[in-house]
Design brief:
Length: about 120
């Protein structure tokens, strides 16, 4: 089974993803990743470009043009979930941490208030 590299803040994005994205290609890619994660693979939680970022228009040759902003989102999620960048765990464990400690705890706006996708959350 594949091990997926997932940015910490993408744990929040995936919770709210409903088929809207930067482009049709990005949206299809996001659906494929989301579907693959349903089988509960091991994931490595990171604060840099991940497997989802591959089809993002802000990803220029593996470098995120919004790095400062999204790295801040990642670090906030990591802190709230009590894990460090590079932690390996099952997807459902990470998904549960994000739900419990960020989303259900009312911390979403603290993490990513002002994000361009906020209207979807």
């Amino acid at each position: 089974m594949a091990v997926y590299r997932i940015r910490a803040h993408h744990g929040m994005c995936l919770a709210y993803f409903r088929g809207e994205g930067y482009s049709e290609e990005f949206t299809e890619h996001m659906y494929r990743i989301k579907e693959a994660l349903e089988s509960n693979p091991e994931v490595v939680i990171i604060n840099e470009t991940d497997d989802i970022c591959g089809h993002c228009p802000n990803n220029l040759s593996g470098i995120c043009t919004s790095m400062d902003k999204v790295e801040n989102y990642d670090n906030k999620v990591l802190g709230l979930c009590g894990i460090e960048a590079g932690a390996a765990l099952e997807w459902k464990v990470f998904e549960g941490l994000v739900k419990e400690r960020v989303l259900d705890a009312g911390k979403r706006c603290e993490v990513c208030g002002g994000c361009q996708w906020e209207h979807l959350c």
